[in-house]
Amino acid sequence: MSQRQITQYKISAKFLIILALLLIGQFADRLVGLAVGEVRWSGSEWPVLFDLMYVLFIVAPVVFVFLKQIQRHLKELEKKEAFMDNIFENMYEGVSVVDGQGNLTKKNNIINDYIDLDYNHYIPFEEWTSYVTYLDPQSEVSIEPKQLPLMRALRGEKVQDQQLYVMSKNGVTKYLSVNAKCLRDDKENIIGAVSVARDITKQKQIEQVLSETNRKYEMIANNMNDLIAMVDKTGVITYASPSHKTVLGYEQSEYEEEEALSFVHPDDREVMQQLYDELLSTGKTKEAEYRVKHKDQGWVWIEVLGSPIAQSDHQQSTIVPDEILLISREITERKKLEEQLKQMAYYDELTDLPNRKMLDMHLKKAMARTNRTGESLASMFIDLDGFKEVNDKLGHDSGDELLKVVAARFVSCLREEDFVSRYGGDEFVVILENIAGEGAKEVAERIIEQLSKPISIKDEEVVVSPSIGISHYPDDSEEIEELLSKADQAMYYAKSIGKNTYQFYHDDLPEVQSITNNPIVKVINQFRK
């Protein structure tokens, strides 16, 4: 029998007792007199009988209906209590209630799972506090019973998210987050306390794993030479690894919340912006090279591997890049080496002018541009007259110095877009784009004027003069080798008619072109210079 049923029977019994006492008090003396014969029935007794009938047929039914209402209300209260108990037992959090002395008077099954207590009812304060060891998760120091959330709440404190590490005698261990509050009566006196405990064991385990992972990553980041940076979609740096201080001289705080482009060389910002745009639009990893600012050493080259960090867009069911991860390393020395190798591969070591390889690459591109624009392209084959005499008289060092001066004079008398290459020995090739015949003539005259000026070598003045042959693309030829060969033929004709002059190639050049273009004749002419 439940507590509510017991209470119901007690109330019903009291009402019946009261009713019986009223009847007895009202009619006992007369009923007894009638029963023993001391009082005889007479017409004057009808009022008494009427009172009795009133009590039995009027008052008694009212009392009966009242009792049935009380019974119905009690049943409703019992259902609500059962409903609340069902909720209480099926909550995802553990709930505990203590009285004013700290004795555990009520708890749900979740608490049993948390601290492995099998009691269903009353548990004294000393027992439930001693059965389980309570530790502070941070310091791992034991917490005194009086400092537990429920006991703090009994003192009027409002406890929020007090974390506990609990160990029961049966070996159950849990991390709990507890909220607690006191319970008061209608006069605001504290009569107990209630607590709600949430199991955060998995969360703590994840936090410990993340903490250990972060510790390892931080150790790696602090001891690596690579640069790691996070940039948001607007180009603002949200994280910079400590290695930035070692490699580029800046503290982490000097990078974070700053625009990444502000640290990039102005000439390379387009490269970096293009990298960002491709990362955000394609979502694929990309590489780039550009210069960034060193705090004390000017500009340094870095090689960058950019990867988009995506987050799921549940509304569009797509992956949207949210941030960009940049992993970089300094490559200044490598770039210097590459430049040196490029210089060695494509530039003449003595004059720093482009060599034959570079000439071939440039001429292919120049021809392609000429095909698109419809303009003319002129090639000049130039040979120095008098160079052998200087070489023989003053030595090879003087000959080398002479070639350097000639190279500088070439650069001074040509347009910025013109191209000059050392073809070999004392031979040079000049490529002129977007220039007509008269324009090539003016350039040739300017070259003759500049190169014919005296040059001081070892305190002696020497004079050399150029012989220039000129051919046009595509009129004279559409092939590189043939175009240069015809310019070469025209140059030898210019040399044969007196040197220090220029000659345009045309099909009806005198027969000297076929003789002087012979390789054997070329060798002989070299000795004649």
Explain what this protein looks like in three dimensions.
The protein has helices spanning 3-36, 46-89, 109-115, 125-131, 149-154, 201-222, 243-248, 252-255, 269-282, 332-346, 356-373, 387-394, 396-413, 437-451, 480-496, 512-516, 519-528; strands at 94-99, 104-107, 132-135, 159-168, 173-184, 190-199, 227-232, 237-240, 286-294, 298-313, 318-330, 377-385, 419-424, 427-433, 455-457, 460-462, 465-473, 502-504. It starts with a helix and ends with a helix. The chain is 47% helix and 25% strand. β9 and β10 (298-313) form a beta hairpin. The radius of gyration is 53 Å and the shape is rod-shaped. By secondary structure, it is an alpha+beta fold. Strands 2-1-6-5-4-3 form a six-stranded antiparallel beta sheet, sandwiched between helices.
Please give the order of strands in the largest beta sheet.
2-1-6-5-4-3
Strand count: 18
What is the general shape? rod-shaped
Radius of gyration: 53 Å
Proportion of strand residues: 25-35%
> pLDDT under 50 segments (min length 5)?
513-517, 523-529
The portion of residues assigned to helices is 40-55%
Largest sheet: 6 strands, antiparallel
Going by helix content, strand content and strand pairing, the class is: alpha+beta
- Tally the helices: 17
Output mean pLDDT: 81
Give the termini distance in whole angstroms: 133 Å
Pfam family, one: PAS_9
Protein name: Diguanylate cyclase (GGDEF)-like protein/PAS domain S-box-containing protein
Domain PAS: 213-283
Transmembrane segments: 12-28, 48-67
